[in-house]
Amino acid sequence: MSDAGKILEELNDRSREVFRRVVDSYLLNGEPVGSRSLTREMSEKISAATVRNVMQDLEYLGLLSSPHVSAGRLPTQEGLRMFVDGLLEVSNLGDADREMIDATVTGNSQDVADVLDRVGAALSGVTRGASLVLAPKHEAPIKHIEFVSLAQDRALVVLVFADGNVENRIFTPPPGQTPSSMREAANFLNALIEGKTLSDLRTRFSKEINARRQEIDVLARELVDSGLAVWDREGDAPERLIVRGRSNLLAADGDQADLEKIRELFDDLERKRDIADFLELADEGEGVRIFIGSENKLFSLSGSSLVVSPYMNADRKIVGAVGVIGPTRLNYGRIVPIVDYTAQLVGKLISDRG
């Protein structure tokens, strides 16, 4: 049993009720709760002084905190963790929410990326938060690749796979690329591509690049040491991580500090390069997992929570994940069944389409 579970077991009924009501109130309105407010809501008739003593005990246990001396109490990250693990009551998925999510996978679209983008938009709309969808990698051998220039800073790559699937991805080409240089790149790749997957090609080129980088690093280090250059290894944002509903959080009611935290959260998200971290969060077993504050290792910002669930293909192999991110006062009881249902729906979609 976890430490949180032991503490919860040791609480008497009164302490448990006070704790649960403080958390419920926080999740509802985000405000500290005072002893007088709780006195009116308690199932037994007790004085404000008694409630105050119980709250002090809960604060001593690390479950509640007081932002100001007389401002009431809020749950700590540890308190929220204990609430989620031991006291959270998960509601049933509502018909309206189910219908909105179901609508994203109806129709004749064979483009899985398009369907997953619509799933992300629906998940964001239903939860009023931001959604994350990690799309599965397509590992079939590539038959043909083509680059199409759309604008100076936008291009399209068309991937034709040996199993008949076609994927179109928009990307930002390196500076200085021209339509003719893209054609040359496509011709070069098509000469090497037979029987190889994207991962095969990436591995081959990574080895060549790493060999060259060792030479470059020596030269670059000399330039950095001399103060003539700054070494920046940042790459392009991962194309498999779909983020929808950012405006739901940026437009949320709250003071400037809260909005700035949310902006920092998304800035941090956009800086991430290794999307495997996101899949790792869900890769320890089936079902929905909840990460609160600093437990959420995908983001360095502690004022956020992630509700995430993996989805599987027909071979019961985890191939992706869906989730909702927002402030720690998410309505966990409502969002957990939404994420769970969406993950099952996406898994069925992936399995049906092979």
Describe this structure in words.
- Strand 4 (142-151) and strand 5 form a beta hairpin.
- Mean pLDDT is 76; it is low at 228-239 and 272-276.
- The protein is built from 13 helices and ten strands.
- The protein has helices at 3-10, 13-29, 35-41, 48-60, 77-86, 95-102, 112-127, 179-192, 198-225, 246-250, 256-271, 276-282, 332-352, and strands spanning 64-65, 74-75, 130-134, 142-151, 154-161, 166-171, 241-244, 289-292, 305-312, 318-326.
- The strands form three sheets. It has a five-stranded antiparallel beta sheet, sandwiched between helices. A three-stranded antiparallel beta sheet has the order 4-5-6.
- Helix 7 packs antiparallel against helix 13 (332-352).
- The protein folds into three domains: 3-86, Orthogonal Bundle (Arc Repressor Mutant, subunit A), CATH 1.10.10; 95-137 and 240-352, Beta-Lactamase (2-Layer Sandwich); 142-225, Enolase-like, domain 1.
- With 354 residues, it is α+β, with helices and mostly antiparallel strands.
- It comes from Roseovarius nubinhibens (strain ATCC BAA-591 / DSM 15170 / ISM).
- GO terms for molecular function: DNA binding.
For the biggest sheet, the summary is: 5 strands, antiparallel
How far apart, in Å, are the first and last alpha carbons?
Answer: 40 Å
Which sequence of SSEs, written as H and E, runs from N to C?
Answer: HHHHEEHHHEEEEHHEHHHEEEH
Q: Total number of helical segments?
A: 13
Q: Evaluate the radius of gyration.
A: 25 Å
Strand fraction band? 15-25%
CATH class of the largest domain: Alpha Beta
Overall SS class: alpha+beta
The overall strand count is 10
CATH superfamily (homologous) name of the largest domain: GAF domain
